[in-house]
Structure formats: structure tokens, C-alpha cells
Amino acid sequence: IDLLKNVEAVQAILGPLRSGEADFIANLGEKIHVPVISFTATSPSLSPAKQPYFIRAAQNDVAQIGAIVSIVKLYGWREVVPIYEDNDFGSGMIPFLADALQQIDVKVASRSVLPTDCSNSFIKAELYRLMTMQTRVFVVHVTPSFGARLFLSVHELDMMSSDYVWIVTNGVGNLLGSMNSTVISAMQGVLGVRTYVPESAKRADFVARWSRQFRLDNPDVETTPELDVFGLWSYDTIQALAFAVEKTNSRKFKFQQVQLGNLNSTDVESLRISRTGRQLLNEMLRTNEVGLSGEFSFANGELQSNRFEVVNVIGKGERVVGVWTPQTGLSSQPVEGKPGRANLSTVVWPGDPGAVPKGWVVPTNGNKLRIGVPYKTGFNEFLQVRTDPATNKTTVRGYCIDVFEAVVNVLPYSLSYEFIPFTDEHGKSGGTYDQLVDQVILG
After folding, report:
1. pLDDT tens digits for 34-61?
2. Would you state the CATH architecture of domain 64-166+308-331?
3. Measured between alpha carbons, how far is 181 from 313 in angstroms, rounded to an integer?
4. What's the pLDDT band for 270 if we cut at 50, 70, 90?
5. Of 370, 418, 368, which Cα lies nearest the Cα of 396?
6. Strand spans (E) along 39-90
7. What is the C-alpha to C-alpha distance for residues 64 and 47, in angstroms, rounded to an integer?
8. 127 or 276: which carries more pLDDT confidence?
9. Which residues form the Receptor ligand binding region domain (predicted)?
């Protein structure tokens, strides 16, 4: 606000880091007609449709939902539990994810909402709760720093084992390269979605020059960090903004002092409205370049980028096992044109690397389905109740039981049940069918 108030050269606001920060600044930019451009604020809670001077130079989190849902559909999982941070970034995407899962008849069995500043003990307590459920497919939408804490706790509680499925959104997927070796070791078998960035000579040359400069500036740092997609977006954004400024043909940007009304700050009230901001905004929105991150253009204030890679955390890093686009769907190989049969390359899963998790287990705290079985003599092939006099153990068998158990075995979820023979204290018939129904009603 101080810069906007006292420095007339401010023509655009670049880079609000978090969605919450960007929301405030986008509202401010709208009031004073100064474009606000962010290459890190990805939450759909921010909308250029509602804040016309806001430009998102990054992927909207909603864009990746198709890739996540395609993974769930490919493996036939029927229930999912989203785990996310309780902030604008974490909660913004979840309603869209739930709706998309519902479209393919996948149930959101529960939601795990974790405060950003919660303790590790809080995280573990929530993980213990999730362990008592039958669902074992978790979609994790958190920031990288929170993700590191979460997966270290997951590993400590032995939840990175067979039967578990962990899918991370690009909040973590885009920055796997920045995770330390301890965290990567704890994430073995995780599937992730990340932004697809095409290889190019321009990008390779820039990364090489950037790496050399980093080593010169930081001689004591042993490992050169990976230049992630946010770094590429930042470069492309600044370059696009520079071109837009040139195209406005205005050597001196003009501002007009007006009364903005009550925005809960006397400093804000004294700000000036840019008289050339609309022109600069329009030039920025007309950007259509091939940058370091690939095609760099906007539609309705949003970066047009909807291609993703599916990665699998293995060994010391991650391996690409597929790509997804809205046009071609999920595929193990980059393809153009019509969609084909959905597939991924071989995935290494947690615990048992070669076995695709079924996505559920028998819950540790669930109630069993109690099935009343009439005790009748005759037609033993159809239904028979027998009690072993030596062990006093009762068994139920017959055609009815075989059909029931065959159906249960093909259900895409766990069903815990027990047969309750309708007998008296002497092991004889407990009564008629009507009396059995009465007992079922009475519980």
C-alpha cells in the first residue's frame, strides 16, 4: 500500500504468494485499476471473473481434478478420503473434487481437514482415526511443507504399507524435487499429479545458465535446487508483462486521485486510480507466447494449461508413469488426438509393490451385518444349520449361503457379517419365519 501511495511508477502488482494474500491484493487492484498477477495462487476461491484485474499465471487447482478422477476410475476404487489443509488453498478445490467423484459413482467416505499450524500429535491422532475406517484411498491436497510433516507421520504409523493408496495433488507433486531424502524415503509408492512441462532447447539453455549462476552465488551449497514449474511461470510472467508494458505505448503511466470509499484503511482511501491500468491489463491478457513452461496464454484471466503428468515416488525420486489431458484422457504415453484406453505404466505401490491395492480393508471398529438363519429340517442342500456336539460350534451351509458369499466376494468394498441361527437354548428351531422376522425387528 505504501508503494502504491507514494510511488507513481507502480503499474502492476506481481506475485502474491498465497491465495489468501492474493485475494486481498486482487480486491485492491480492482479498486485502483492496477493488474494483479500471481504465478503461485492456485485456489479456485480466487476468480478473475469476480476480480477482473486479477490474472492467474498458474494452473487453477481445478484443472487437475480430471487427472485425479481418471486414476481413481482406472483402478476401480469406490471410496476416497480427501486430506487437506484448512485454508483457502486446501479447501478451495475439494467441493469440485467431490462433485467429479460423484459423477463416476465414487463416494467421499470422509474428509480429513487439518489446521495449517496443527502439531504432529494432532496429525497422528487424525491418522489413527483414518486407520479405523475401511477406506484406504487418500487424496492429499496440501502444501509441500505440510506434506513433508504428514508423510513422515504416515510412515511412522506404518500407513505406507500394502492396501494403502496415497495420491498427492500438484501442490506436492510440482515440488517433489525440493523434498529432502528423508521425506522421499517416507513417500515410497505415492502417486502424484504434476504440471506437464514440455522439453525445449530454450528451457534447457535457461536452466543450465540459472544453475551456473546459482553455484556462483552460493558456493557453500552442495546441491543445486531444481528449477520447478513456479520458477518457470515466474520467468514467463515477467517477460509477458514486459512485452505488455511496451505495447501500451505509454512512456508515463497516469494516475488519478479519487475517493475510493471505505476499505477499512485510511491509507487505501488515499490511493490513486491508474488511468492506463485497463490498457495494460488487456495487453497482458492478449499474451500468446511459447515460454519456458510451454504455451503461455490466457483465457478469461486464467493461464491456459491443462496437461498433467502422473508420477510415482520410487527410490530417490519420482518416475513418470503417465500423462493426462482433457482431450486424450489418461495414458502411459503422450498421445495426441482422440482418447484411447486409459492406462498407466507399471506403478510401484506401498508395501507390496506388485499388487494393486483394492482400496479398502475390513474396518477395525465396524459393526457386523447380522444375518438371521432359520433352522428347518429337510432340503439340506438349500440351507442347513449344523452344530458339532464335540466343539458346540455351529456352521451354516447350503446353496443360499454359497450364492450370498459369492456376491460378497465381488463387492468393491468390505462387508463384515455373521450368520445367527434362529434356535432355542436346546439347539432346536426357534420358531416360525414370522417369529424370526419379529426377532430381526426387535434386534
Report:
1. 899 999 999 998 888 889 999 999 999 9
2. 3-Layer(aba) Sandwich (3.40)
3. 12
4. low
5. 418
6. 54-56, 79-85
7. 17
8. 127
9. 2-315
Please give the average per-residue pLDDT across 178-205, as a whole number.
95
Residue 111 cell numbers, joined = 474428509
What are the grid coordinates assigned to 55, written together?
Answer: 490474472
Task: Give 140: exposed, middle or buried? Use CB within 10 Å, 0-12, 13-18, 19+.
Answer: buried
Cell of 176: 517433489
Report angle CA 203, 204, 207 to the nearest 5 degrees: 85
Distances (CA, A) of 62 to 48, 94, 114, 422: 14, 9, 20, 54
The whole-angstrom separation of Cα 7 and Cα 223 is: 39
For strands 36-38 and 54-56, give the pairing: parallel
Q: Is the dihedral of CA 420, 422, 425, 426 positive or negative?
A: negative
Residue type, 342: A
Helices and strands in the chain: count of H runs, count of E runs: 15, 21
Q: Coil, strand or helix: which one is 230? A: helix
Who wins on pLDDT, 362 or 213?
213
pLDDT score, position 4: 56
Whose cell is 487505501? That residue is: 268
Question: Which residues are CB-contacts of 204 (< 8 A; sequence separation ≥ 6)?
Answer: none
Cα atoms found within 13 Å of the Cα of residue 15, Cβ hemisphere only = 9
Range scoring the smallest mean pLDDT among 84-88, 235-239, 311-315, 369-373: 369-373
Domain made up of 2-58+228-303: CATH architecture: 3-Layer(aba) Sandwich (3.40)
In terms of DSSP H, where are the helices of 297-418?
A: 399-409
318 φ, ψ (degrees, to nearest 5): -130, 155
Residues found in the chain: 443
Is residue 167 within 8 A of residue 138, CB to CB? The reply is yes
Report the relative pairing of strands 36-38 and 107-108 from DSSP bridges.
unpaired
> Can you give the residue ranges of every domain in the chain?
2-58+228-303, 64-166+308-331, 369-442
